[in-house]
Give the backbone structure.
Amino acid sequence: MTITGRIERRRANPPRAIVLAALFLIFGSSLPVSAAETPLSPPQAALVRVVFDPDASTLDQTAQEELIAFAEDFQRRSGRLELRAYAGPPQDTSSNARRLALRRALSVRRVLVSNGIKAERIHVRALGGTSDSGPQDRVDVKLFGG
């Protein structure tokens, strides 16, 4: 193929950017929305929800009192607990977010264990950033498997 043939062939095929721009102008409103733009689902129900200050892993007095009351009631029941700990913006799975979430979950677990719930009944999950529209800095206490 000669150079003139390549030039003619290139003129016949418009650049991809122009085609994509035209498609966006025509179908822009009907294109699928990216994951970052989709609204987050509401949080699932929790037996207790402990909300933390950003970058904090210590419990305030109100949260401790709420966990103590919960522990006193739950130690008479059967079943296991799951602590789902969150830290950071939605979908943040960075090491720092997961470590902060773990410190928060262990703070909650410490209060529950010191108030009568056996450690074997508590399952800890440090999830990093939230995956729902609930508070970003929290620990949800739920029934394990539920």
About this structure: The CA atoms of residues 36 and 90 lie 9 Å apart. The longest strand covers residues 81-86. The chain has a mean pLDDT of 83. Residues 95-114 form the longest helix (20 residues).
